[in-house]
Amino acid sequence: MNTQTSGALAADERGRVAALLARYPALTSDELADVTHWFKRAATPLDVGTLASDTTIAEQYRRYRAEHLDRFGTADMVKAAIFVAIALAVAAVIVMRMP
């Protein structure tokens, strides 16, 4: 696949997501899952910036981001807990080694 073909496919997919976002929040659960998957796995920073700057869907885009992407999920909380536990363990080791 050449660059022009992949660019056209990316633009088509971005257009499909923009059309779905234009109907947000009136999306089916499958459509919502598709949009979320696209943002988390397929969208490039250019794709996200292009959608974010599209004034025709700006309100729906901001609302979707606030309700689905910008929130802390369970996985985020687990990662934070692991980080804090490791930091506390390292601090405890340092304190215990002090004379």
Unreliable segments of 5+ consecutive residues: 1-5
Helix and strand pattern? HHHHH
Estimated helix fraction = over 70%
Q: What is the mean pLDDT? A: 88
Q: How does the helix and strand content classify structurally?
A: mainly alpha
Global shape: elongated
Task: Summarize the topology.
Layout: H1 3-22, H2 29-42, H3 45-52, H4 58-69, H5 74-97
How is this structure best described in words?
- The protein has 99 residues and is mostly helical.
- It has five helices and no strands.
- It has helices at 3-22, 29-42, 45-52, 58-69, 74-97.
List keywords for this structure.
mainly alpha, elongated, 5 helices, 99 residues
Outline:
This protein has 99 residues and is mainly alpha-helical. The protein has helices spanning 3-22, 29-42, 45-52, 58-69, 74-97.
